[in-house]
Amino acid sequence: MPDIRVRLRGGPQDGQELTVSADSSGKPIPRITLPARARNPEAVPPRLIYERSGRNGDGTWEFRYVGAET
Asked: Disordered: where is this region (predicted)?
């Protein structure tokens, strides 16, 4: 399956672009999680959650920030 370039909206990673895998329908996977930056290097950082929200008129897929989990 091809990789798809997506843009993140909201949260700490707002505006960043990254490449994600496509699912069996050819759309980007529905959810991605990324590690947050931790101030304490010994702490386990929370995971930032972004979910697929749709496709822009220019064809770019967007993922919206929905929260964090520890």
From this structure: 1-32
